[in-house]
Amino acid sequence: MTYVDGFVAAVPNANKQRYIDHARDTARIFKEHGALKVVENWGDDVPDGKLTSFPMAVKKEADETVVFSWIVWPSKEAQAKGWEKIMADERMKPETMQMPFDGKRMIFGRFETVFEE
């Protein structure tokens, strides 16, 4: 079964194109290092919640939009090997690649696929 890295972040609306360009650049790197697919989504209908929500989780500000992204790997092992290579890749160094959003407010996790249809 596949293995998935999931991400949610708040991106300034003014940085939408920068974010898309950044996502394309990093997707190429992830795929070079074994990812099967990278999916990026720009929030369209992401409501505020009363107890919890995507906007609350990333402390979205008024001039930001929530993005929801995931990377699909062939397996947990492939993901671990891929990330090891990604973190060593010069193109991913902070001085080389700057994120167009506040990475401190990004949430992420790794997920084992239990059902796929």
Structure in words:
- The chain is an alpha+beta fold and 117 residues long.
- It has a single domain, classed as 2-Layer Sandwich (Alpha-Beta Plaits).
- It has three helices and four strands, in the order E-H-E-H-E-H-E.
- The protein has helices spanning 16-32, 54-57, 76-88, and strands at residues 3-12, 37-42, 64-73, 107-112.
- Strands 2-3-1-4 form a four-stranded antiparallel sheet.
- The N and C termini lie close together (12 Å).
- The model has no long low-confidence stretch (mean pLDDT 96).
* CATH fold field value: Alpha-Beta Plaits
| Count of the domains | 1
The radius of gyration is: 15 Å
Distance between the termini: 12 Å
Task: Give the ordered list of helices and strands.
Answer: EHEHEHE
Main sheet attributes: strand count, strand direction, barrel closure: 4 strands, antiparallel
> Averaging pLDDT over every residue, what do you get?
96
Tell me what the CATH architecture is: 2-Layer Sandwich
Which percent range fits the helix content? Answer: 25-40%
Shape: globular
How many separate helices?
3
